[in-house]
């Protein structure tokens, strides 16, 4: 694409300003400070119970997805390679494909951020970097250092993995105490686990597994799971400090990352929904909103099933509730800005992509972006009665087992 003759777009100017203003590695990076909490753990629990009670997934019309084949459709895609053994030439190909197709970003690990920034100079494609990938159990300081290094290297978006284990543990649990007390041990254990899980990664397909079940049902409906069955009939029980998760620890981590990486850096929180119940997904969404994250994202693609339709619907409903309900109108005191939802993990086809967009996701994280675009072109050409163009090389190839 020839960008030399066209005036820069607003987003190109924003990216250029960001790249000029970002800190220089090793020279301007000051101390990292943790944010203090806004509420006690009990107070968080009360607010979160309210969100769990109020969020409703309605049997509603589909959301309007960008037209297949339009630039807006391509811009929903974060073109992703996160496998540990990715090579520099694969990353270069990823960048050139993203430019050609008009994707929103390339999503890579920290070691490739600088390379992608160089590759994508002058293009509207931004670089997204994962943080705490893929377990999310690294200690907060290590995530902060990673986030800072990514932004300093030119990442415009950060996809941060939630420490989802905290949500499934009680504040007083032994494992949680050990993790907090000894983050370095936990970190190295995480690294070896990352390697193991990466090797064992089985590339789940979206929507092929049973959605997580929760205490949610539509009013007057007897459904107990599935796409439209996530309205809470009863909030979680009255919080008691000893049996609630350490919400404060999660908020503190997220707020510290936000404080270190202010807007225009886009922050996405990867929930790893396959590991969470609907109530826990809502708790995570609540804390992400409170910490001013821009997106909640379903999955890493490396742990359990990928994005499910039910999870996306619940997350979209959560972002709508959290954007409108404030302390003043009887809702949780979070904020008014609406988060967006990114569906990721196992989004392999045009049908998968459309399903997620029609459920209200506005971004897709996928290593199958080229395939999805090729399918889009075929659909368009068939619709217009033209002969489909010949199959071009696809970077994403399931048979190689690569991400
Ligand atoms: O965040 C993105 C995911 O890792 C991509 O997963 P995927 O390779 O299943 O498309």
Task: Describe this protein's structure.
- The chain has helices at 10-21, 41-54, 71-74, 88-101, 113-119, 140-153, 164-167, 174-181, 183-200, 247-260, 278-290, 309-324, 350-358, 369-383, and strands spanning 77-80, 105-108, 126-131, 157-161, 266-270, 295-297, 340-344, 363-366.
- 40% of the residues lie in helices and 9% in strands.
- Mean pLDDT is 79; it is low at 174-237 and 393-403.
- The chain has a single domain, classed as Aldolase class I (TIM Barrel).
- It has an eight-stranded parallel β-barrel with strand order 1-2-3-4-5-6-7-8, surrounded by five helices.
- It contains 14 helices and eight strands.
- It is of the alpha/beta class.
- It is globular and about 65 Å long.
- Glyceraldehyde-3-phosphate binds at residues 80, 82, 107, 203, 300-301, 306, 344-347, 365-368, 403.
- Residues 80, 82, 107, 203, 300-301, 306, 344-347, 365-368, 403 line the site of glyceraldehyde-3-phosphate.
- Keywords: Cytoplasm, Lyase, Schiff base.
- Residues 219-228 have a biased composition (Polar residues).
- It comes from Clohesyomyces aquaticus.
- GO terms for molecular function: deoxyribose-phosphate aldolase activity.
């Amino acid at each position: 694409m020839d960008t030399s003759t066209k005036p820069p777009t607003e987003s190109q100017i924003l990216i250029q300003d960001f790249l000029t203003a970002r800190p220089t590695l090793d020279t301007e990076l000051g101390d990292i400070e943790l944010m203090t909490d806004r509420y006690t753990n009990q107070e968080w629990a009360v607010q979160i119970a309210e969100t769990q009670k109020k969020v409703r997934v309605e049997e509603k019309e589909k959301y309007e997805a960008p037209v297949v084949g339009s630039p807006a459709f391509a811009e929903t895609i974060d073109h992703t390679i996160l496998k540990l053994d990715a090579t520099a030439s694969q990353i270069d190909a990823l960048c050139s494909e993203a430019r050609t197709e008009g994707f929103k970003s390339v999503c890579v690990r920290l070691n490739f951020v600088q390379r992608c920034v160089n590759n994508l100079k002058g293009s509207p494609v931004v670089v997204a970097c994962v943080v705490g990938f893929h377990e999310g159990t690294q200690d907060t300081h290590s995530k902060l250092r990673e986030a800072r290094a990514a932004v300093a290297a030119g990442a415009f978006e950060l996809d941060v993995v939630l420490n989802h284990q905290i949500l499934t543990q009680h504040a007083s649990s032994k494992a949680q105490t050990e993790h907090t007390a000894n983050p370095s041990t936990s970190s190295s254990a995480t690294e070896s686990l990352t390697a193991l899980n990466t090797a064992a990664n089985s590339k789940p397909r979206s929507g092929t597994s049973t959605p997580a079940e929760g205490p949610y049902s539509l009013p007057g409906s007897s459904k107990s799971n599935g796409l439209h069955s996530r309205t809470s009939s009863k909030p979680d029980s009255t919080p008691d400090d000893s049996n609630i998760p350490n919400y404060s620890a999660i908020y503190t981590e997220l707020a510290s990352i936000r404080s270190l990486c202010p807007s225009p850096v886009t922050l996405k929180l990867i929930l790893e929904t396959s590991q969470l119940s609907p109530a826990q997904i809502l708790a995570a969404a609540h804390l992400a909103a409170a910490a001013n994250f821009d997106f909640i994202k379903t999955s890493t693609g490396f742990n359990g099933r990928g994005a499910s339709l039910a999870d996306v619907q619940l997350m979209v409903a959560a972002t709508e509730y959290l954007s409108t309900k404030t302390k003043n109108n009887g809702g949780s005191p979070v904020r008014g800005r609406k988060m967006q939802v990114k569906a990721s993990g196992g989004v392999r086809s045009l049908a998968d992509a459309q399903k997620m967009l029609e459920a209200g996701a506005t971004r897709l994280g996928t290593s199958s972006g080229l395939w999805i675009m090729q399918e889009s072109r075929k659909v368009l050409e068939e619709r217009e009665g033209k002969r489909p163009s010949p199959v071009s090389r696809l970077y994403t190839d399931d048979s190689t087992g690569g991400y």
